[in-house]
Write a structure and sequence with these properties.
92 residues; alpha+beta; 2 strands; 52% helix; extended
């Protein structure tokens, strides 16, 4: 059972310049955890950057398709293939 009267104030610290640059470009306005899933809300979203509605719709639909396809991937097999390719390149 969760304590609903408890307030957690999360913070984030990093020395990674790439993350710092990204956070300066598009700062986080809010951070929410719902059903144990973290969601960050930034000042800008994809619709602020991309004004092409057709492209946005395709991207959204493709995200749903990718979400379904990822469940079918055999990551162990892909990893083994990549390792094999890397070793082949290193040993030649």
């Amino acid at each position: 059972m969760r304590n609903t009267e408890q307030v957690t104030l999360p913070y984030f610290g990093t020395a990674d310049n790439g993350i710092i640059d990204a956070m300066e470009i598009n700062p986080v306005k809010a951070f929410v955890i719902t059903k144990d899933y973290p969601i960050s809300i930034h000042e800008m979203n994809i619709m602020d950057v991309c004004k092409n509605e057709e492209l946005l719709e395709k991207g959204y639909l493709n995200a749903n398709i990718r979400g379904k396809k990822i469940k079918e991937l055999n990551f162990k097999k892909i990893r083994e293939q990549l390792e094999s390719e890397i070793l082949e390149k290193v040993n030649s």
